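hey so i finally got around to running both of the ones u sent me last week. sorry it took forever, my laptop kept dying halfway thru and i had to restart like 3 times lol. anyway pasting them below in the order u listed, first the sequence line then the structure token line for each. didnt double check formatting much so if smth looks off just lmk and ill redo it

first one:
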Amino acid sequence: MRTHRLEILQTVQVGTRRCSTRQKLTNVQFAVRQSLCGLLVLFLTVGCTPHWLVNRIAESHPGCLYELAPREKLVALTIDDGPDAVTTPRLLRLLKEHNAQATFFLISDRVTGNDSLASALVREGHEIGNHFSRNEASVRLSPTAFERSFLEADSVLRQFGPVRWVRPGSGFFNARMLRVFQQHEYRCALGSVYAFDPQLPFSWYGASVMLRQVRSGSVIILHDGGYKGRNTEKVLRRMLPELARRGYRVVTLSTLATADPAGSR
């Protein structure tokens, strides 16, 4: 009888421990969900990477340009993934209307058949940047494939004018990639004002969060091609008049770098 009671007591204790463990797991899961919800609310409220985090990333991952500190009220506009036969001409017309210049990071495979657009970019005061030969995450490529894609793009894009800026696909980089860029006299450029427009192609949202984030020396990131290019046109129709009203000039990366003595080195 006593043995039976001990077995019952042990069973109850084990069950209690299991219930306690499940409760702890439930509490942890709840805390994780709450944290994720908090991050989502913060992201949707801020929309862009906050300045303090951009500075932290720049310090921990040096070698690329994120933003500068010019003496004038300048912001650099960068547009990735073009050219596109439909949307790029519309963007060029819009930029001309507002006397704005941009650095277009072109994918060289998309230049074929759009050579006249690449020429028009340079002719109208914009500059071309290297965004590799295909739309893929550069950091995931093997060293050989990475350098081949980079140099293929370089050989195509240099036909239209000097190319000094490179932006790796998907924005991630490592020390090996930087060494290749430096070997070929390129500067790596990322940015500081990015509303994740490929994932959240809502022009009202993108324009509002970027206008909250922008400051002198900011590097704005937008995208061209298909729905991304159509969204960028709508975003810029909202942003460019407001930037002008605030006294900003919208310029290329090279113009911004020249205006900042530290950035021009």
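and the second one:
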Amino acid sequence: MSVKALIAGGAGVLGSNLSLLLLRKGYQVTVMDIVRREEAWRLADLGVLDDVNYVWKNVADVTADDVKGYDLVIDCAIGYADRPMGISSPTSVMLGNLLPPLRLLEALRQAGFKGYAIYPSSFNALYGHRHGAVFSEFTPPLPNNVYGWTKGAAELLYHSYRRQYGLRTLVTRVGSAFGPRGRSDELPHRLIIYGLLKERYPDVPLAAYDVSGEYAMVKAAARAGLIDETTAMMELLYSIRRAGADMIITYFAYDAARLLSSGRPPF
């Protein structure tokens, strides 16, 4: 008899790839996501949308009835998957990232769930540790941003339900992966896309952007004394330029322009 798996947030980057993996292993896969089925393009691109049982529902509204009959539950549901939103809208990030796992765990407890519940956390939960620290599965959360705090808090929530109610839980920590199905908005993939576009359309001006994750990471690392902000900023911008960008839209624009106009070497 095949294993029945529920993937909460299964239409996202991680959840869609887990769906493909489990289907290949012969699992019966149900996906629950706030995204409409017809808009679950990642599952469609992987060719598995018609092979999963798709439940259009916000995990924050999950009930005990929704989780009955499963052997495995993987919690990939997250309201906000990027650090900058935690700066401008910390309350939304808190509610969006902590309410769904709490409701899911409560539903599992009420349903008398006997299988395994897995929470793929993020290395953002550890970015507050000292430079050079060696991480293991026993390293406690120590975030340096609101997004990382929500991931670390969710880890502790899963551990709490294991200790208090005996739920069989497993917490993993996932970093952004480079590869064919990685997020196209992250820097390594963007550089490849810029290069391919410039090669195909050499006479068309190519505009690139740097306004999100990398900006927040550089700022946070510089404040923690881990890097030199100016050097990191310019290397980041030059990498985008080397990839083929003719212009760059960036939060670093003012600082970079001031540095370049001063005549000071960028590195």
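quick thing i noticed on the 2nd:
The chain has ten helices and eight strands.
anyway thats it, ttyl
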